[in-house]
Write a structure and sequence with these properties.
The complex is a heterodimer of chains A (441) and B (351).
Chain A (H helix, E strand, L loop, with lengths): L1 E8 L2 E4 L4 E3 L2 E4 L1 H8 L5 E9 L5 E10 L2 E3 L19 E7 L1 E7 L8 E4 L3 H4 L7 E9 L13 H15 L9 E6 L8 H5 L2 E7 L12 E2 L2 E2 L6 E3 L1 H5 L3 E2 L12 H5 L2 H9 L5 E7 L6 H18 L3 E6 L4 H15 L3 E8 L20 E6 L3 E4 L4 E4 L3 H4 L22 E4 L15 E5 L1
Parallel strand pairs in A: 1-8, 2-4, 6-23, 9-11, 13-18, 13-19, 19-20, 20-21
Antiparallel strand pairs in A: 1-12, 3-4, 5-11, 6-9, 6-10, 7-8, 14-15, 14-17, 16-18, 22-24
Chain B lengths: L1 E8 L16 E4 L5 H7 L3 E9 L1 H6 L1 H13 L5 E4 L6 H18 L3 E5 L4 H6 L4 E4 L7 H17 L6 H4 L7 E5 L6 H13 L29 E6 L3 E3 L15 E4 L14 E3 L7 H5 L7 H10 L4 E8 L7 H17 L4 E5 L2
Parallel strand pairs in B: 1-3, 1-4, 4-5, 5-6, 8-12, 8-13
Antiparallel strand pairs in B: 2-3, 9-11, 10-12
Helix pairs in contact in B: 1-6, 3-4
């Protein structure tokens, strides 16, 4: 499989008559773009707002982030979501770089939603503080979940995917200077030089804890809760086969943008043929029942050993209950002689003194640790809010609260906030971006 | 000028050697012996008093020694407390740890000591005291005293502290996130660690797995048919108005609610009980809270005489995202009341 991603850098996003991309400037005809959003009758109200790095702008509640992309000559950009099921990871895809489409609630937030600041200290805490964010701010008629803490946010998330695909189409006929090519030979057809290198798999544990369908990450539109571990080509991950869900406390979340650009996959490609033989991605999941955890760990172990993997990098999208899946999988791989590196974040509490993962095992002896979900973050007011600031306190976001004896509400009258890292949008960046590290103090 | 107090043993306090190890604690004005070094480097405070105590006295009469020292300090104003350095001397290390811990608890001032890595005091007290990685003998006195004093200066000036490793004290089990100065991202760190692990080279995990704390399992209940059983849950079942405002995640609060006269918990629709737990699908527990707090089943056991009685309250909090430390604190608070009410056994339900 050979994937060619043609990158088009975006330096500015503006609104105008003609939908176009020229000299790094993306011009959006808002009316036309909103038509794509409003294809779903459940969207009752929608606007598009641009947020740039350096703006005094706070965005909340953010539900999803997507890099604008388009699959040239070949069906849906997000198969099973924006179109029918077709294999991705092969052929040509165009991408608008340095920007993302955000799905933002006009009013209502939910447990897994997050916050992004475009300047100041808060902008450091999420990757998206550095990107031009094309914010789809919308409301829906999904009354059944309007006042629920857990929301599927389906209409908004799907609309954002449609919008990202639509925006990506602007460069579908252009040639880019910057091309990334991802190609792996079929496993049984590799030459001796490759086969003599240590075989490495990347094991991903995307979020799939909700038994009810509609909240979890989807692979080709299929709910990861209903999945057993399976072998995937890394190009499929980079090319839109998997979209993010709507459940996990937000700093632990992997947005679709994170999957599309997964830095760990790119690093493994970088080492392929030099220091390692990159065998592929084992797509596992994170489920709540012990039997499901054991079954998944066993499945990952089986696939890794069947492939003859010597080593693995294992990453979990979550903390708390999912730590049990992470540690079980880590132990299963080590027991099979697969030298494993784990990537995760920790929950050590506001005072830093709690056990970092809920499950521990001495076999998990090599971990890259990307952040503390429970860190308290205080941020000054921003001039502009995209979405609704009160949602952080009111709607049960995982890192916000309406009331606390000592700290008061998460949202202060002057617009300043106090929150746990838990609600920083995709803040812990376990797929590889994180420049944070846990340390002893 | 702020004030500091220094604790020394009989030897470094210039009382005498091993023959004076039973020496009861005294307090002296100003600095004694090696305290001069500390005082000269400490530019944010002066050592106003020195406490001297024999190592054996502290070892054999710990309560008495600690009481005496705390009494000496009751009317003194001080901002920081130092003990040692204790080098590799085990009894001295223990004494420094004991008194530092007691001072911190009573006066809430920073406490600083220094010990060699093989001093048993390190393992015993590193969680409670800033213990610097000191030398193995008094030849390192100047160096160790300097480290303690310089760190004291930092604390008193309110400077931003670096990591335990960079500062030079033993890790205390307090883990926080930092932004790496070199901005090296996680994928690069993972690949480096991977290649080292594959090649059998040394690597350092960013999360050393701590030793597990085990709770001893209680003895079985002898006669279940006479036992009083309580239900405790981390499943977030509360009266519909959540009167104690227990948080839906990362809980720090808990509640107990009467179940007297109830055969089962009525549900959300009948405005009785619901779940506020944000970590699982609430539909089943809202429709029937007994799936999480199994009062219905236990009442049947009670009728059948399998258990003696059900405690008049069920206890509840939320487990998702809740830190281990908060969970331990809340359960200690619950246990106190459960013991007071002569509960014999608890059924702890999760989600």
């Amino acid at each position: 499989m050979k994937l060619e991603i043609n990158n088009f850098p975006v330096s500015e996003v503006i609104f105008g008559e003609k939908f176009s991309y020229e000299n790094g400037i993306l011009t959006i005809n808002k009316e036309e773009a909103l038509k794509v959003v409003l294809e779903d009758e459940h969207i009752t109200d929608a606007d598009i707002v641009i947020a740039k790095p350096g703006d005094s702008t706070r965005i909340v509640p953010v539900k999803e982030a997507i890099e604008p992309r388009f699959r040239v000559n070949n069906g849906a950009t997000f198969p099973g979501v924006t179109g029918k099921i077709e294999r991705v990871g092969n052929g040509k895809t165009v991408a608008l770089k340095n920007c993302s489409v955000l799905a933002v609630g006009k009013h209502w937030g939910s447990f897994g939603d997050g916050l992004i600041d475009m300047s100041g200290e808060g902008a450091k805490a999420t990757l998206f503080g550095d990107l031009i964010n094309i914010c789809l701010v919308a409301d829906t008629d999904e009354e059944f979940e309007r006042h629920e803490q857990q929301k599927k946010n389906k209409a908004l998330r799907w609309a954002a995917h449609r919008l990202a695909e639509y925006l990506g189409s602007v460069v579908k006929d252009l040639e880019s200077v910057d091309k990334e090519v991802f190609e792996l030979e079929p496993i049984s057809k590799r030459n001796k030089k490759l086969n003599d290198l240590p075989g490495v798999v990347y094991v991903m544990q995307p979020q799939s804890q909700m038994e009810e369908l509609g909240y979890n990450d989807l692979v080709y539109g299929w709910d990861t809760n209903r999945m057993l571990p399976t072998l995937m080509h890394p190009n499929e991950i980079l090319d839109g086969s998997i979209i993010s869900g709507s459940f996990m406390p937000c700093s632990s979340k992997w947005s679709t943008y994170d999957f599309q650009n997964c830095p760990t996959i790119k690093s493994l490609y970088g080492e392929h043929g030099k220091t390692i033989n990159f065998l592929g991605v084992i797509m596992s999941n994170l489920n709540v029942a012990l039997e499901q955890k054991e079954r998944a760990a066993m499945g990952v172990q089986q696939i890794a050993t069947t492939l003859g993997a010597d080593a693995a990098i294992l990453a979990e999208e979550g903390y708390g209950n999912p730590d049990a899946d992470f540690i079980a999988c880590f132990a299963a791989l080590e027991e099979a002689g697969v030298k494993t590196i784990g990537m995760t974040n920790e929950c050590t509490g506001r005072d830093g003194q709690s056990q970092p993962l809920v499950a521990l095992d001495q076999k998990a002896d090599a971990i890259v640790s990307c952040g503390n979900v429970s860190k308290l973050i205080e941020l000054p007011p921003m001039e502009t809010v995209i979405g609704e600031l009160e949602s952080l306190a009111r709607d049960g976001l995982s890192g916000g609260w309406a009331h606390d004896e000592i700290l008061g509400s998460s949202v202060k009258e002057d617009g300043s906030i106090i929150m746990e890292n838990n609600s920083m949008f995709c803040g812990d960046r376990v797929l590889g971006w994180s420049t944070k590290q846990m340390k002893e103090f | 000028m702020k004030k500091g107090i220094l604790y020394l043993n009989q030897f470094f306090g210039q009382i005498g050697g091993e023959d004076k190890a039973d020496f009861a604690p005294i307090i002296k004005d100003g600095v004694v012996g090696a305290g001069m070094i500390l005082n000269s480097i400490l530019d944010t405070a002066e050592i106003s008093h020195t406490i001297i105590c024999g190592d054996n006295f502290m070892g054999s009469n710990e309560d008495e020694a600690v009481d005496k020292i705390l009494k000496y300090l009751e009317d003194k104003e001080f901002d920081i407390f130092f003990a040692g350095p204790a080098f590799q001397a085990g009894r001295y290390g223990n004494a420094c740890g004991v008194i530092c811990k007691a001072i911190k608890e009573k006066f809430d001032v920073p406490v600083i000591s220094s010990m060699h890595i093989e001093n048993p005091g390190v393992e015993m007290f590193k969680k409670d005291v800033y213990i610097f990685q000191g030398g193995d003998s008094a030849a390192k006195m100047k160096n160790d005293m300097t480290e303690m004093a310089e760190f004291g200066n930092k604390l008193l000036k309110g400077e931003v502290l670096k990591t335990a490793e960079e500062e030079g004290y033993y890790v205390r089990g307090i883990r926080r996130e930092i932004y790496r100065a070199d901005s090296k991202p996680a994928n690069v760190r993972a690949i480096e660690m991977l290649l080292k692990k594959i090649n059998g080279e040394d690597f350092v995990s960013e999360l050393p797995i701590p030793e597990l704390r085990r709770v001893e399992i209680a003895a079985p209940i002898k006669n279940l048919s006479e036992a009083k059983i309580a239900i405790v849950t981390t499943g977030g079942i509360v009266p519909v108005d959540n009167p104690d405002r227990i948080q839906s995640a990362s809980a720090t609060r808990w509640g107990r609610y009467s179940i007297v006269g109830m055969d089962r918990l009525a549900n959300r629709e009948s405005e009785a009980f619901k779940t506020i737990h944000a970590g699982y699908d609430p539909a089943a527990a809202d429709a029937d809270p007994n799936v999480c707090v199994p009062l219905d089943a236990l009442r049947q056991y009670e009728k059948d005489g399998k258990i003696g009685s059900i405690h008049e309250y069920f206890y509840t909090t939320v487990g998702t995202g809740t830190t281990e430390a908060e969970a331990a604190r809340m359960s200690k608070e619950m246990v106190e009341l459960l013991i007071e009410d002569k509960v014999d056994g608890v059924i702890l339900t999760s989600t």
